[in-house]
Amino acid sequence: MSAHPLLESTSVGDLRRYLDTVGTVFRVFDRQDSGCVSYGVAVDAERWFVKTSTTPPARRALGRAVTFHAAVRHPVIIGLRARFVARAEPVLVYPWVDGVLLHHATVDRGLPRRDPASAWSRFRRLPVTQVEAAMDAIFDAHLAVDRAGFVASDLYDGCFLYDFKRRLMRLLDFDEFRPGPFVATEPPCGSSRFMAPEEVLGGTFDRRTTVFTLGRAARLLLDPATTRRPGGGPLASSRSCTGRPGPTRPTGTPTSATSSRPGAPPRREPGVGRASARMGA
Q1: Going residue by residue through the chain (281 aa), what tens digit of pLDDT does each one get?
Q2: Residues 6+ apart with CB under 8 A from 232
Q3: Residue 222: CB partners within 8 Å, gap ≥ 6?
Q4: How far apart are CA 212 and CA 254, in angstroms?
Q5: 29 φ, ψ to 5°?
Q6: Bridge-based pairing state of the strands 82-86 and 150-151
Q7: Maximum separation of any 2 CA atoms in the chain, in Å
Q8: Do 206 and 259 contact (CB within 8 A), yes or no?
């Protein structure tokens, strides 16, 4: 029996040429702001998501993804199936999963979240029970992340792949997740809508970072009216994965994740209580 061209390869030359030789490329994702290029590839009756790097930061990120997937398994997390090298660049192979990313981060920004046709807007118009079920899937996956000792970083709606027909949530893109606690040494990567204070201002990432980010996700995805930050300013939406300056501290955002003024009771975003209780934070 011949070796599988994606699952059993070790080293190839030009990746796109190789993929065209062994299968049919039906999607190309080459406008990402992460420094990665990905392909949807059909080989016989199977479809695969093949991802590679084009910059040194992206190369390091894919190395982190390999470490993450070796440690974390969960039905909601789309797992790594194989890896090989193409002209010294890492290549990661995942199963292709049907669905729509709630936000597609590209260098030209893509479809605005507020556009009624965007996946983000469509998702937030779903019945609350369906959104809660999707959030439960996200929470359950992060229990596995926490048990493995990893901390969320760059977790945002571009990691959420939702199948509107089957009402299923899957998660992808764990390139920035790392064993915690840790201090980031590179510019922040992600959407400032979802960032914990330490992601914006710098500091130690630990399991509280994961809980805060999950709380932000619950707030943003469960509340259809969340289009403006408390105080009247628009929600921040900057994203940086290429060494450009990251987001600055939003006006009016407290430095603490738990309180907006000295002596005030802890601030709880919708969903954060459930996440923190289940993770023991």
Answers
A1: 678 999 999 999 999 999 999 999 999 999 887 889 999 999 999 999 999 999 999 999 999 999 999 999 999 999 999 999 999 999 999 999 999 999 876 656 667 788 888 899 999 999 999 999 999 999 999 999 999 999 999 899 989 999 999 999 999 999 999 998 998 777 666 677 788 878 777 889 999 999 999 999 999 888 765 544 333 333 444 444 544 334 333 333 333 333 333 333 333 334 444 544 556 55
A2: none
A3: 128, 131, 132, 135, 270, 271
A4: 13
A5: -115, 90
A6: unpaired
A7: 69
A8: no
- For the record, the structure tokens of 21 come out as 């030789």
Domains and CATH numbers, the chain: 27-95 (3.30.200.20), 100-279 (1.10.510)
Angle at 177 between CA 152 and CA 221, to 5 degrees: 40
DSSP letter, residue 219: H
- Per the structure block, which two tokens stand in for 65? 């993804």
d(CA 136, CA 122): 19
The CA-CA-CA angle for residues 230, 136, 180, to 5°, reads: 80
Question: CA–CA distance from 53 to each of 21, 174, 206 (Å)?
Answer: 20, 14, 27
**Axis crossing angle, helix 128-147 with helix 272-279, rounded to the nearest 10:** 30
**Residue 190 to residue 239: CA distance in whole angstroms:** 5
Strand partners, 151: 178
Count the residues in the chain: 281
The conformation of residue 157, written as its DSSP 8-state character, comes to G
Give the whole-angstrom CA distance, residue 56 versus residue 92. Answer: 16
